[in-house]
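@channel anyone free to eyeball this complex?
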Amino acid sequence: MASESKPMKLIYYPGCTLKNHARNFDVSTVSSMAELDVEVEELARWNCCGTVHALASNDVMHRVAPVTNLVRVKEANASEFMTSCAMCYNTLKRANIDVKKRADALDTINKFMYLDEIKYEGDVAVLHLLEYLRDRVGFDKMAAKVKKPLTGLKVACYYGCLLVRPKEVAFDDVENPTVMENLITALGGTPVPFAQKTECCGAYHTVGNPEIIADRTGKIMGSAHEEQADLVVVSCPLCAFNLDFRQADAKRANPDFHHLPVLYFTQLMAVAFGCDESALRFDLHHIDPKPVLAGRGLA
Amino acid sequence: MAITTVRISSARLRSPFVAQVQKISGQKLLACYQCGKCSAGCPMAAYMDILPNQIIRLAQLGMQERLMASSAIWACVSCMTCNSRCPKDVRIAEVIESLRDMALRDGRRHDHLNIREVSQATLGVLPPIAMISAMRKLTS
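replying in thread with the prediction:
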């Protein structure tokens, strides 16, 4: 049990995209957790989360990647770990639920991973950062750490699919989650009502059918703009890419489209906790968040 | 959707295709009573030739050719909105994935993404999770 003065230690699974296109999500997660006296330790030898959960009832092969990560958590002498990527969270948690229900599948995976001494027995908990902040750190404690309150900043919180569906993985209301809004309130910001907050962005169609994503982005970001949001916060690097990068396509399809910056919720934490620019990496954004933040005295 | 003549026969209802869909998806197709709630909330419905509830109906009736030729099964991104709202707890997304799997597993490589057609400029900006999930869902 950690004493009061000793920082809490937490195993952290970043996932591939946080080490590539979404480095802003990675650095803002680590920096803001340090401000909350939580020492995040990156999981040793982590591999791909599996990316998408295979839905076939007889699938075993696509559970190997997520279960390998759960074994690595056990190797780190931990029984739980946190990820901030909604996609990794969703895939790892669903695989965990699935192999706990299917002893034969788990047995096959353990036999396949014969080089690993530690076997997986369904004994690791998968946590999303938002869940960890709400239940372990507490929004009250977070509010006390705020150095630059997000006063006047109107934020539309976008959950997409992966934090709330399927219902087995949801740590909040499936149709009307509020955990991100409560976080923004704790940081001094103003969450706006957002009808599109759990509507799918179109996901991987961004590769082969970008016009679908432009259409979805137009609807979702248009809804945020109608609510007079200054920006949209997300927890999924694929949503972030679609809603940010595809705004150019949305604008081409509809000249009335209004650009809005898209940030990770951890970046707003880092802003509120007074972290420096290296923790924000706004250079990775397509729609620059700085003018909007500067307008509220935050950049 | 164009008007088509649908011939229903007991042989189709008890066909290996229906059994296969139920086995891969783990769903009982006859649980669906066609309320249409899945289609009402589907974010991809606008890009589908047949709607999610129609996919279930055609699967119940064993209409293999019509289903396998539909673009709708490739438009679905497994966002799970249908599953979370179904009053009968039918997992529509699992049924649709079983149809994709049958197309991708039959050895003839019915891929629905040709990565060579994606421009180099696009490939340069796409995050890994976009590429991996598209390849996983749309290619064999």
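from a first look: Residues 148-295 of chain A form a domain with the Rossmann fold fold (CATH 3.40.50.11810).
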